[in-house]
Amino acid sequence: MNTRFVTFVLLLFVWLEGNSVWAQYLPKLYQVFSPDKKLVMAIQRHNDGLLTYTFAANREVLIKESSLGFKLESQETVPSSGWKIENVSDRQVRNEWRPLWGKRAVVKDHFNELVIDLLNPAGQPERMQLVVRGYNDGFAFCYKIPEGEGECVNVQSELTAYNFAGDYTAWFYNGENHNIGPEKLTETDGTRLPVMTVKAGDRHYMAIHEACLETGAPLVLQSKGGESLFSVASKPADLSPGYTSAWRVVLYGTTPGVLTDSHLLELLNPDPDSRYDFSWVKPGLAVWDWRINGAVWDGFTYGMSYPSWVRMVDFAAEQGFKYLVLDANWYGPEFESDSDPVKGEKAQDVQRLLKYGKEKGVGIWLYLNDVGGRKYPIEKTLKQYGDWGAAGVKYGFMSGTQEEKNRWTKKITELCAQNRLLVDFHDGPVHPYGQMRTWPNAVTREYCHAQLDGHHVFEPKTFVTTVFVNMVAGPVDMNNGMFDLRQGHTTRVDESQPVPSTLVSEAARTLIIFSGVTILPDIPEYYRKYPALLNFLSAQKMPWRESRTLAGEIGEYIVMMRETDDAYLVGAATNESGRMIDLPLSFLEKGKYTVEVIEDGDDAHYLMNRESLKTTTRQLTNNDKLTLKLAPGGGACLVIKKTPSMRVREQATFPLVSPSEKMNADIKVGGKNVEIDLFDNGEKVVTAKTLQFSLDENTLKGNWTVTNQKRKSVDQTWQPVYGERSVVTDRYNEVELTLQSDENRKEMVLSVRLYDEGLAFRYAFDKLDFWNRTVTDEKTQFLFQEDCKTWVTGMAQGAYSETKLSGLKGAADRPQVIQVDDNRFVAIGEAALVDYSRMKLEKSEAGFGVQSVLSGKVNLDLAGYRSPWRYVMVAGHPGKLVENNYFVLNLNEPNQIANTNWIKPGQVIREVTLTTTGSMACIDFAAENNIAYVLFDAGWYGAEEDVKSDATTVTVDPARSKGPLDLPKVIEYANSKGVGILVYVNKKALHQQLDEILPLYKKWGIKGVKYGFVNVGDQYATAWLHQAVRKAAKYELMVDIHDEYRPTGYSRTYPNLLTQEGIRGDEESPSLDQTIYTLYNRMICGAGDYTNCYFAERVTKKMGGRAAQLAKLVAVYSPWQFVYWYDRPEKSPRRTGGAGSVESVIKTDAATRFYNSIPTVWDETRFLEGEMGKYAVVARRSGSDWYVSMLNAGDKKQISLPLDFLKNKKDYTATLYYQASEQKKDVVDIKKIKLDDRSEITIDLIGNSGCVLHLR
């Protein structure tokens, strides 16, 4: 392939990106762009079937055509010429990740993804996926073998390569030795270990690594001298169904600091296992007993003794350090197999120390050598450590191949999690690959040359290389912070060389190195000897809110900033050359700060005068600049604190405007509450009074001040898997206020978003301040200026009634619509309710308004410390509130299901006889009429409320049908007809058998499950139910939730949740005015399973007639539309009474053919006109066809329908389905209407009826 041509194409694509006129002339490449469009990875398929990729950044190719795939032991290449590209799909993800601890509190998880599905018609493996993700700071790709039938195929090697476009400069990890490099790529010959950091010119830096290594050997790279090509030399696992390779990662930045600051490796790992609660994981600083052994101070000799340990614990408690690490030999000589790690020499002293540490608030780590870890049952050892109350385990000298080490490391990490133990792996551990996201207890490992390890020191240049190489992989334990830097130690057992550093550099390095536990190696007295530096250490209060490499160059120097709750800390370090560094303070927020600067003394040097330092304190702003003087091998430390005047003592107002400035909000902070005044076009609409929580029965009393604020603006669109529109606009401005209570210093975050459609806010509780706390009441109030009209229902399936705010009684379900004036309606509700207690709304205690009432207590540990969003939508018409209901979806996380091809909306018909004969007839009817699914509702596995009914068997409830029902045969027949089967399962079976039935139903070939009579409201029920949706997604099963559950937008995050009830549907025989109330109120929050009837007697006697049923099918949105709810096809067996009786037989005519053809999802939706409870006109588009639904609950009405939504009226024909006579509600009349050049159509709609105008 012509590499220059590929380069040209890539650059051309970047230049012409987004220009559809030119894009059609580009060659067929599969491109993935980073969200900011600055990076691109292009996949090319060659005639021989091989895949290659090319990587470019900022219009420059950095990795030219490089191979992908595998070579099998049979010598076949995967993929090869026989393989076909079966499907190509893409998606955009715009999430955020809030780690328990890490480099920053909030991490953007923004990427674009491409999935190429490859099919092998002639051999094994049968299928493979190449998944590519583009981030703003790099690219990643992995190989997957889908679950399913297939054979395990033996692999000889992985073909992935990195063919660099130039002879760049590289550095490599080198075990516990100095890093390899800098060396030219063409000078490298042999194998190298990651991280491989590459400098490709002054503005291009890359790092090669891997993420999420589940199987196979850890990454090894190989190169032949004289070329710039590196290939993967580590052997992968064999290819079997369900296989997923490690992610191959190319990190990229215009500075090396971007690589160090990246979170890409963690983001490629999964969230923590839901079985484990990691809220106990606390990062922090630790003192250590290893390097102090033999040190003497004022007559006291430090050693492996209880008095020494107590002295260290007292010092840690004094300084706020979280831990003491007890190193090797506390249970006996570590390499002797007779040393029992539980019953060893000092086990009793250790247990006594653990109790003492607990009293002092200092956790104790215990060392465990691999010899004791393998000879003695590791499960029992770690359980004993957990039972003792140990804080963590430092595991040393692990043996085995790298692949064996990885398996053992994962096992120990999980066992530690089970026993609430942190873990630190030492002495040649497997490289980090982002697993701290999945296992937050894996806080660090010695993936470096730790200071004085093996009695050897590292040079200054090694440190400023390690931070840009080893530390890119993840947290590293480097043991910086030695303050006794003398020329050798005659008394200390484990030191023999002076440390080539300065005091200031040693302190700075403790901040610069990222680790979940920073281990300080010296005795307390040496730290106390230098109070300014000790203050710098004590100020390192993790977890970090923010981290950023401010400046640096590989092997030269680094300047790192890390933000705590109350300060910004900066550490700088240099190599053997001294230097001056100009440091702008623009990384600070606007304001005045007190800055303490600790620098090397004028005569300081890493080989002499190491202890020389000077300290200055200045008042500076974010507009100022500091010049730092670093001695050779030296450093600098800064503690930057806000001045008292920056704290908000009186009430302060934080303004926020919507993107078009249609709406604005004033957020008022001060006193007990935070109030948000919302204005629409300059007129005040509502005041939201927030932060009126009760925790553990005690009110959170507030007196809030703002300690930090962050603002952002978002303007994007996204494409839902299905919906009421094919493209959703997501535009808002947001402010995030960090609030602190003057009463008890507790902190929480109030996030406020303002859209043109309305206001949303939510609470985030600080993990430390609110750990193990329970919210007993929330009482968020929404107050209006006068007594407004509102519409309420106490139950999700209840009838609506009209009242005034002053007349509210009991709790109303959300959303609740309130009419502020003639031209302004609001809807109050909640979004993203996943693991919290449901909010309802009751009359406010004071004024005109409503206030939140929770359906149960909220355990903040389980809720993830964030509430659902509370929102206020505002519109000039109630129909506009429903039209804008994408607002609720925007408040939820983006789609988490990678492959959504199996999620298919459509009409559903219920099989009412529960017999094989009836099922076959129903399937035939569905296939003939393009109805996608047949549902088997209650009774197919027995009496639904009987706990003994087994949902893994087909046992028809005799009270519902005599049967027989051969469901396997029915499913097989349905598959042959292209019809999907859905089944109902009651909550009793769901709670007992969920984990059993989901994989079973997948095996049976069932497409979806209707969850019935589920528990809702309290936190446990809410969390369980959404977990049940996620579990269904794992087995590619769609879900309908029935009865009292109302949606809050979760179908965006898990679109396998197609619909839900929580609505007064046709099962309740609602009058037409109730349907219209439902449309304007309930449908704001999302899809509603309305169980649409057609031939059942209730349609003509109570519900407005069959023409109205057609109109409901368009107006009431549900991706699964359940049609003919009480009806049966003509060929189904007759039943006496009830569903499927003589009166409920489906008769096919032109009206039912149209009924069967109405789409269930839409490309565009508009509410054209209407009035609450009286009438509604809704227009929906599918493709180029428009369906206009008109429902009229009042007297005869004439509706003038503007046609301005049609692009070209002459291309359309109009067909009206309506009721011509008030007496004949069972008759649907049909007529054609000529449009010509008319600008509107006039429709005469009789009372208590409906119609549909189909424009095509």
UniProtKB/TrEMBL annotation:
Its cofactor is Ca(2+). It holds the Pfam family Glyco_hydro_97. The keyword Hydrolase applies. Residues 293-446, 914-1063 form the Glycosyl-hydrolase 97 catalytic domain. This is Glycoside hydrolase family 97 catalytic domain-containing protein. SUPFAM superfamilies: (Trans)glycosidases. Residues 544-641, 1161-1255 form the Glycosyl-hydrolase 97 C-terminal oligomerisation domain. InterPro entries: Aldolase_TIM, GH, GH-type_carb-bd, GH97_C, GH97_catalytic, GH97_N, Glycosyl_hydrolase_97. Keywords: Calcium, Hydrolase. One of its GO terms (molecular function) is carbohydrate binding. It comes from Parabacteroides johnsonii. The keyword Calcium applies. Residues 32-269, 656-894 form the Glycosyl-hydrolase 97 N-terminal domain. Monomer.
